[in-house]
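SEQUENCE-TO-STRUCTURE ENTRY
===========================

Backbone structure tokens: a row of integers, each naming the local backbone shape at its residue.

Task: work out the structure tokens from the sequence, keeping to the layout shown below.
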Amino acid sequence: MSHIHFDHSGDPTPFTKAKFLLGGESEALLKAGFPANPDSNFYQDTVPLDRTEFLYPTSTGWAALGPFPHGLDYFGDGSLYLVDAPGHVPGHLNALVRTGPAEGDWIYLAGDTAHDVRLLDSVRQICVYHDGGSAHVDHVAAAEHIKRVRALRDHYGVKILLAHAYRWDEERKDTYLPNIFKS
């Protein structure tokens, strides 16, 4: 899971044998979540804690990866890299996934790194409200991470997919199931 916001976690109960992977900083948010803390924005039962692995970017195995300070070759074969994605919410992870054998066969699943694809093109800036709040808990770290994602795209040719990338969705709607089966 990219992070523990309700619109990214869903209902884990049907996945009775699944192992859940979360960024390490999510652990404290979940343990201090609702109902233990009635004021928390997170639910303790977002994931089954006994089947959740919390991945801390300071632990063994994490290393610099392209423009990112912390990446983890999860399977050890170069097919899936988990990337620490600071700024949006503590424990936010992104994934760099090999989709084929060619050099450009990669996609970067950026979660909520940005809520508008124009942030990747520097057409827009992160909206910071008059009280200092934004869609990110740390808009400075989020802006720095967005720059790194932009570098991944511009310097390495990796396709970027944001969780809320409506333009991407609209341009590719005919490629989704069941639309590909329509004549």
Observations:
- The chain has one domain: 6-174.
- The first strand starts at residue 20 and ends at 23.
